[in-house]
Amino acid sequence: MSLATNNPKLSQVIVPVHLFVKPDLYANPGVADFGRVSADELRKNPAVRELLTQTFLVKKREGSFAIKQVRSTIEGLDVRIDPKEGKSSTFRIDVAPTPERLKAGKLDGFIVVLTDDKKFPEIKVPVSGMVF
C-alpha cells in the first residue's frame, strides 16, 4: 500500500501490509498452551484446575454448523463444549487438566474437532505444555 504526501522530497510512502485470512471455519485462538503445570498442586487444590482451563472458539464466517465430536489426543484433558448440541455459528470449547489422569511429562498433541461442514470436517488445535 502506498500513501501520497505533499512533501516534494518524499511524494510517496510505502506501507507494507500483511494479511492473515482465516478459513471459513476456524478456531480462535488456534492453540491451547498450558505452560508449566504442577500435578501435585493440581491434586491438592482443585481450584487450580479452573485457572489452568484453556478456552477457544470454533467459528464459522457465515451460517451455522454442528460439532459431531471433540476429542483430545492427550490423556488427562477434559473437554467441554458450549452449546453442547445442535447447530451454531460459534462454539466455545474449554479444555482443562484432569488431576486423576494427568501424567508427568510434555503435553504435545491436539484437540480434534469433528464437524458436519463438508469443506472443514476436522479442525485440529495444537496443545502444548509441561506437567511436572
Radius of gyration, in angstroms, nearest whole number: 21 Å
CATH class: Mainly Beta
Multimeric state of these chains? single chain
Helicity range: under 10%
Give the overall shape, derived from the CA principal axes. Answer: flat
Mean pLDDT: 95
Widest sheet, order of strands: 4-11-10-6-8
CATH topology: Immunoglobulin-like
H-E order: EEEEHHEEEEEEE
How much beta, percentage-wise?
Answer: over 45%
Task: Let me know the CATH homologous superfamily.
Answer: Immunoglobulins
Number of separate helices:
2
- Identify the CATH architecture: Sandwich
Number of domains: 1
- Find the structural class using helix and strand composition: mainly beta
Show unreliable segments.
none
Instruction: Specify the biggest β-sheet.
Output: 5 strands, mixed
Task: Characterise this structure.
- The protein is mainly beta.
- It has one domain (24-131): Immunoglobulins (Immunoglobulin-like, Sandwich), CATH 2.60.40.10.
- 9% of the residues lie in helices and 52% in strands.
- The chain is built from 2 helices and 11 strands.
- The protein starts with a strand and ends with a strand.
- The relative contact order is 0.26.
